[in-house]
Amino acid sequence: MCFSFIWVEQVLIWLVVLCAVIALLRLVVTYVLPQIGLGDGIVSLVTQAIRIVIWAIVLIAVIVFMFDLISCLIPSGIPRIH
After folding, report:
1. In a 3-state reduction of DSSP, which class is residue 30?
2. What are the residues whose beta carbons fall under 8 Å from the beta carbon of 45, sequence distance 6 or more?
3. Are residues 72 and 51 in contact, defined by beta-carbon separation less than 8 angstroms?
4. Angle at the Cα of 52 from the Cα atoms of 47 and 53, rounded to 5 degrees
5. What is d(CA 55, CA 51) in angstroms, rounded to the nearest whole number?
6. Which of 24, 22, 27, 26 lies closest to 59, judged by CA?
7. How far apart are CA 24 and CA 57, in angstroms?
8. Are 43 and 33 in contact (CB under 8 A)?
9. Averaged pLDDT for residues 17-40
């Protein structure tokens, strides 16, 4: 069932949701931080830190996704760790 149409549909939906969440977080952070009175230097630092955390989470998700794909291709004799 790894490469069925339902699986592809779910992957595409998750990609759209992930892109939307990243865009919304970037938008909210750049709007909210100046509103609470933080200076430009702090806003820039916090924005960059949040972007790094977001991309770290995205890359971890990509690594998990890639290993799930590899486990679909390898025969079922190798145990999966969850």
Report:
1. helix
2. none
3. no
4. 100
5. 6
6. 22
7. 15
8. yes
9. 78
Which residue type does 63 have? Answer: I
CA 49 to chain centre: 15
Q: What is the pLDDT of residues 43-80, one digit of tens each?
A: 777 778 878 888 888 888 888 778 877 777 776 655 65
Angstrom distance (rounded) from CA 30 to CA 46: 9
Cα(49)–Cα(53) distance, integer angstroms: 6
Residue 33's identity, in one-letter code, is L
pLDDT recorded at residue 10: 81
Inter-residue contact 46 to 33 (CB < 8 Å):
yes
Residue count of the chain: 82
